[in-house]
From TrEMBL:
Gene3D superfamilies: Ribonuclease Z/Hydroxyacylglutathione hydrolase-like. InterPro entries: Metallo-B-lactamas, RibonucZ/Hydroxyglut_hydro. Residues 18-188 form the Metallo-beta-lactamase domain. This is Ribonuclease BN (tRNA processing enzyme). GO terms for molecular function: 3'-tRNA processing endoribonuclease activity.
Length: 243
């Protein structure tokens, strides 16, 4: 499987970039994980919209799903033009009324995710773990054969993440905060905490994402490194990993 960073900013995108969005590709299956602001435009640098099979949303904050509504229009136009034959499946939790809006005529179909039941898409199995965040939000673990990718989406510190990310090949961890911000903003992780999770879960590689619009990003890297000896990278548009 291959995962490509479409967007990595927290809150709002920098010029020509996007907030959270990752394109997961496996055996001809194209799955978008989160669909933040700027993702619809940027994603088209990597695949044509007719080739998108599914979207999985971690939660309904705008920086993770702002482009879902324009993506629905895109599906409508492509299907009306007969360029695309099948509707797009969108997966998200059903604990919020936003869920109903994922359904759009016969163009996009809302599918409820269930943290007790892993989701099977082709050869991929996706597990969910409930986060500590201001609204319901889930981390995801994507497994194929013996490979594991974990994407935290938005979360404050939570011990369950350690087990959930255990021995992951790739941990894409939110790092919205510098260590000095801990305690001032809740529901998000600092770079130091991201490093600590990576070390405690014994992951192979850590990627810092959901990056802030303040401070020096190099400091995030240094703070994560204080706690984790393995490979650490900062998310960048187009950066991808094959597992
Ligand atoms: Zn959020
Ligand atoms: Zn966010």
């Amino acid at each position: 499987m291959k995962i490509t960073t479409i967007g990595y900013w927290g809150a709002y995108p920098a010029a020509n970039e996007a907030t959270s969005g990752y394109l997961l590709q496996s055996e001809g299956e194209n799955i978008l994980i989160d669909c933040g602001s700027g993702v619809l435009s940027n994603m088209q640098n990597y695949i044509e919209l007719v080739a998108l099979d599914a979207v999985i949303l971690s939660h309904y904050h705008a920086d993770h799903m702002a482009d879902i509504y324009t993506l629905q229009y895109a599906m409508r136009i492509l299907m009306d033009l007969k360029k695309r034959k099948k509707p797009l499946h969108i997966y998200g939790h059903a604990e919020d009324k936003e869920f109903e809006k994922l359904h759009y005529y016969d163009y996009t179909i809302a599918n409820a995710i269930d943290e007790r039941k892993p989701l099977k898409l082709g050869e991929l199995t996706i597990f969910f773990n409930r986060n500590v965040h201001s609204d319901t939000c889930f981390s995801m673990r994507i497994e194929k054969k013996n490979k594991k990718i974990v994407y935290t989406a938005d979360t404050g510190w939570d011990d369950t993440l350690i087990k959930f990310a255990d021995k992951a090949d790739l941990l894409i961890c939110e790092s919205s905060l510098y260590n000095e911000n801990v305690g001032t903003i809740t529901g998000h992780l600092s770079a130091g905490e991201a490093g600590k999770i990576a070390a405690m879960a014994d992951v192979k590689q850590l990627v810092l994402s959901h990056l802030p619009h303040f401070g020096e990003h190099d400091d995030l890297l240094k703070q994560a490194r204080e706690n984790f000896d393995g490979k650490i990278e900062m998310a960048k548009t187009g950066m991808n990993w094959r597992l």
